Amino acid sequence: MDLTTFYTDTYHGSLTEGLADYLARAENIISAVCADIPENAELLRYYELAVCAEADHIAECSESGERVISRETLGDYTCAYESSGNTGSDRGDIICREAMFYLDAAGMGCRSMNIKA
What pTM value is reported for the model? Predict the structure, then answer.
């Protein structure tokens, strides 16, 4: 079963617009935690649930706006700054709590991960 079908039929998620992109980003994060996609059907189900939970979290964070990076240059002097906050584009090593619960339940969680509520 592909993740889009799993998301709608099993996880019963509500995302429609941008779902494929959110799932792809979420799978990248979850697969980095797990190292490999499990082949065991029960572990695979927890993995897919974690990906769906992470996709929902990414979508929720993305709704709050994108990170803004600005650069100002005056002669030889350059100043760069960015907005703060938890947005969808600056979440490289952060996994949401719900996804971590699924991974922990299957014994696939890593306690050293940076978890974001």
Answer: 0.70
